[in-house]
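The instructor's notes for this session suggest beginning with a concrete chain rather than abstract definitions. Hand out the sequence below and ask the class to guess, before any prediction is shown, which regions might be ordered.
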Amino acid sequence: MTMGTYSRVPNVNAHLHTPFSFSAFENLADALDRASGENVSVVGINDFYSTDGYEEWDKESRKRHLYPLFNIEFISLQQEDQENGIRVNDPNNPGRTYISGKGLSCPPALKEPYASQLAGVRAESNTQVKEMCDKINLLLKAYNAGFHVDFENIESEMSKGLVRERHLAKALRMYTYIHFKNEPKDVKKFMEKIFNGKKLKSDIFDYAGVENEIRGNLLKAGGAAFVPEDPKAFLPLDDVRRIILNAGGIPTYPFLGDDANGGFTDFEQDIEKAAETLKQRGIFAAEFITTRNTTDVLEKYAGYLHDNGFVVTFGTEHNTPAMEPILLRTREKSLLTERLKQINYDGACVIAAHQELIREGKAGYVDDNGIADMDNRNKYIEKGNEWIQAVIH
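After discussion, reveal the predicted structure:
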């Protein structure tokens, strides 16, 4: 479909984390109410290792005349890149590769051995955070803090079963504030103590800032509660790709894009080479978190990928405590250009067509081996537009 075909291009946010992994939202309804309030019509749930929110997302989205996309995110390992020291889309860990799946089946459907592989990854993730929690409690005991962090409570009350290190940072902040009765002077003094003499920079009522400092000072490499991730927590890239395909989805590569200094990872610095490598690895879709990148880089990278047959979508993540707009903006806080809005909507249309066809038991945009029907992408755009418009109007 040619650019500018639609009289009004709907706003799309195809990558939103929810409390089923970790997010700024209180619940799914909160996310969808905010999307509706910002005139975002197509919304993609995109949790780490989880499809548990799909059916609620489907029901609550349609109730608000929003079109739902059903996505998932993994952290995988590309061993060849790791051996060659190539940073892919994790700037600090060569070979480590974030991969999303777009347009999975709803209700979720995953056969063996894939279901067990996914369950194993979730269990490894929880085990690592539990070990971090144990280290936090040893630290609190060493400083005679007078309280401890209850992992079981985090798991049952603060998460939906998948516990991330952000949950642990939030819990430590909350337990600290309760113990010191929200007294700024006492909270700051205690934080400086457990940060090994490093002063708290954030205002204590800037919860997102405080929690980020807890993560940076205690839970990251070099921190007193840091626990390195077990290699078992990262499936090989091809295994993740097969899980996504078995779940009915489209394997999708999340581009990191340019950093604050205009730099790129080894894998992404040459967009033409990166695109060719992705195709060789059986990945024919890409996405960007737009707040990370400048408008110029998004125009160049997303434009190139779209023009070369990729399905391209954009999102915001919202996987931190900070509440940001759902309507997409670039790093300069600019709204998307018309070309970028169109690229994003075209991508959403392909995903919509794919998941609706799969729901009907038909072949979708990618086949069982993950090969995309790139020559007929425009047909999927047209069909997906029909499905989306039927819901949002």
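Then share the key points. The radius of gyration is 21 Å. Confidence is low (pLDDT under 50) at residues 1-7.
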